[in-house]
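To start, one record:
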Amino acid sequence: MDHEQLWTVSEVAQFLRVTHKTVYRLVQRGRVPSFKVGWIWRFRRVEIQQWLEEQRPERELETGHGMRNRRQR
């Protein structure tokens, strides 16, 4: 049996370094993969990590450089 890791809203917020409110907003807008167990939102760790990778701009993916390497104006 595959034991996938499930995260809570708090764990997703900590991983993304955002507030709980931001996570709930993302869920309400259908922007982040999630599902409910009863009244509680849950998130599959693997899906959150994949979703985060998909949010990276194409140029950043091609060059391997993040925002900190871009020229500041």
The two ends are 52 Å apart (CA to CA). The mean pLDDT is 85. The beta strands are 6-7, 35-37, 40-44.
